[in-house]
Automatic annotation (TrEMBL):
Pfam families: DUF438, Hemerythrin, PAS_10. One of its GO terms (cellular component) is plasma membrane. It comes from the Bacteria. Residues 94-224 form the Hemerythrin-like domain. Gene3D superfamilies: nmb1532 protein domain like, PAS domain. This is PAS/PAC sensor protein. Residues 15-81 form the DUF438 domain. InterPro entries: DUF438 (IPR007380), Hemerythrin-like (IPR012312), PAS-like_dom_sf (IPR035965). It comes from Ruminiclostridium papyrosolvens DSM 2782.
Amino acid sequence: MSEVINNREYRQKILKELISELHSGKSVDEVKERFAKLIEGVSPTEISEMEHSLMMDGMPVEEVQRLCDVHAAVFKDSIEEIHRPQKPEDVPGHPVHTFKLENKKIESLIDKIRADIEKFRSQDTHENIQNLRNDFEKLWEIDKHYLRKENLLFPFMEKYQITAPPKVMWGVDDEIRDAIKVVRAILSDYSNVNKEQLADKAEETAVRVKEMIFKEENILFPMVMETLSEDEWFIIEEGSSEIGYSLLENAVKWKPVKISVEKKVESAGEEPSNNGYIKFDAGIMSPNEINAILNTLPLDMTFVDKDGIVKYFTQGKERIFARTKAIIGREVKNCHPPASVHIVEKIVEDLSSGKKDNEDFWIKMGDKFVYIRYFAVRNAKGEYLGTIEVTQDIKPIQDITGEKRLASST
């Protein structure tokens, strides 16, 4: 394992050197040749780590941003394909599917813009000028594409400490916005304008838009698909319509993998008990009392049934980890970032197989000391019914000293 880590660190070091050499003036071809000899494949995550490392070493964001165009060209033929048994981004309505659909529309528009630029270069007739005006009015719709990326996607990347790529990409987005505004402004008052300068500016803008599409498709999207959970994609999709879409009237509503837990238990012959009481091994309680008691406990509980479906979680006042009702009915593996799914699956496998009855973890979160426990839930016959996760901030308990025998006066 250590040799893998060391190799990864070594490759990171080489990648930084290559970028630094580009920064110092070496040609792309020179760097690509060395790159081909030393590197077999580079994942989007490693590119992210490299950019972050450069910034941590003191390279200004603007410098990393300037290099962004170059390193995209260097890695264009080298980015490894992320193989997945299933590709959620191929499902219509998934945020990445929508981003890619927009990119296709934008690319088609860019092709038209380039054709119209050539017509304009040959003759700046009123019709040719008006065509360019219409083209760049449509191109401004790219603002919605960038706004969704910046306001819905980037916050989740920052949550996972992926900070450099969003900063760099946001800066380039703004440059593209400014370039489109400049062309639109010139076209709105064409008199006394140098035709070739305008055509060059329009062409340069079109090229930058195409370059950004390449970076999104080959660096950004593979990176976030590798990182974000289905639950997080669901939140992004939910917020997308508020901002709107570029060159699309509407996006298809995404239907993530999810089942109805009520129908699932009904199909097993179980009936709801909302109007009666439930008899336990030692006593009875109404569903209303059970719900209130569970929400009063000073801890979080999440129950995953024997098929790995999230079936329930408590809603106490002090939550440790964020939960939304959207996770009910989802496979637990889809509610975690891909990088940690294997840990979750291993825990469930050990508990369901009987290899373990519980698994415990404890982590520091700010001023909290969080104790996370997973228990196998079995019936009287020892049959596995599911896994319950119990999470609690035990810092206040750790701080307890001495004794307390009287109730507080306040």
